[in-house]
Design goal:
By secondary structure, the chain is of the alpha/beta class. Helix content is 41%, strand content 15%. Strand 5, helix 5 and strand 6 form a beta-alpha-beta unit.
């Protein structure tokens, strides 16, 4: 039995094509949701071609702050161990079960620890990524390093990632790309209408702005600086800014008295965080992306979309030196980037094989 452990929407995006391919091959699977994000009713289950999570460990809302996530980790570890022990026993014991975790969230670490405590082999999807800075991003770098010391099998998106894993006994499988490549393809091919905003507010030229990492929203200086540079570009009047806001982003804008100000500015479109299919359609039509998100970096790479990555370091190599401009001091690079984003445009990437299919094939070996 293949036990898939997911905790956040971002994890589910990248696990969805693996779940879909595992089901297509007729392999048994059981999905466990940690409860870190509320995934019930998510449109992502349709991409995965499964009805939803079979087991959910924690059902209370988790505020996205480190102190709450630490409490969630401690509390869910205790209750989850009991639930998973019963589940593993029901499927014939540890030798008949495989535990699959993804990425670098606290749920990834939680799932890996629970499986390890029960003697279940841990297969880690998106393994080997490194920023080489334990606090950047936090806590993701710590989580991925810790999971690498627990895993039995590492599914690495490229040879660069695989090269960071040297622990004896760890089996490495290079998948030739991230499973996000498959998720993006499924989303763009989904039989769903385009978001209405694309035929109305975003019918002309636009670029996308995403600022959602906690470290960039703690104080006002960074956010105000980014908006000042964006406004300077918008002053030319030939393009709009689609500002996609996570809950933390909106809270920060409201705290600083910026939300209403931006809402009145016709050059900005303040868009709530979108369902994944809709978001991919928006990215596919945009002329550029300014972001602080790692998954956005990968989406941009596969789309060939010019991307300014507002981070000091990144744990990923996709697009670097090509369509992705890593900006440790983004306020000094935004004007240059938005002045001529086409300089960083590249053709859409086509991989020779599906990373998700390679993973599912390995699960069935």
């Amino acid at each position: 039995m293949n036990l898939f452990f997911v905790g956040t929407a971002a994890e589910l995006v990248k696990m969805a094509p693996v779940l879909r391919e595992t089901k297509r091959r007729g392999l048994p699977l059981h999905v466990i949701a940690s409860g870190q994000n509320a995934l019930q009713g998510s449109e992502l289950w349709a991409l995965a071609d499964v009805a939803g999570a079979d087991t959910t460990l924690f059902t209370e809302a988790i505020p996205p702050r480190a102190v709450y996530l630490a409490a969630f980790l401690a509390r869910t570890a205790a209750t989850g161990l009991v639930d998973l022990r019963r589940l593993v026993a029901r499927h014939g014991g540890p030798s008949r079960v495989t535990g699959i975790v993804h990425g670098d969230t606290v749920s990834t670490l939680l799932g890996a620890m629970l499986f390890r405590a029960l003697g279940v082999p841990v297969h880690h999807v998106e393994a080997g990524l490194r920023s080489f800075a334990l606090r950047e991003p936090f806590p993701e770098e710590i989580c991925r390093v810790a999971v690498s010391r627990i895993a039995s099998v590492a599914y690495c998106p490229n040879e660069w990632a695989a090269g960071h894993l040297r622990r004896p006994g760890l089996r490495k499988v290079v998948t030739g790309g991230n499973t996000l490549y498959d998720a993006l393809g499924l989303a763009l091919a989904a039989e769903e209408p385009e978001p209405p905003v694309l035929s109305r507010e975003l019918a002309g030229r636009f670029f996308v702005l995403v600022v959602h990492r906690q470290e960039n929203l703690v104080g006002a200086r960074f956010l105000r600086g980014v908006l000042e540079k964006v406004r300077a570009r918008l002053a030319k009047g030939d393009v709009r800014c689609c500002f996609v806001m996570h809950a933390l982003t909106k809270a920060a804008l409201e705290r600083e008295g910026l939300y209403e100000e931006l809402a009145r500015d016709p050059r900005f479109l303040l868009l709530p965080r979108q369902p994944y299919v809709g978001f991919t359609r928006i990215l596919a039509r945009a002329e550029a992306l300014v972001t602080d998100g790692g998954s956005n970096q990968e989406e941009s790479f596969y789309l060939g979309l010019p991307c300014l990555l507002m981070r000091r370091v990144t744990e990923r190599i996709e697009g670097l030196g090509e369509n992705v401009l890593l900006a440790p001091e983004p306020l000094a690079r935004i004007a240059e980037f938005l002045g001529d984003p086409k300089r960083w445009a590249r053709p859409r990437v086509t991989l020779p094989a599906s990373p998700s299919a390679l993973i599912a094939a390995d699960l069935g070996r």
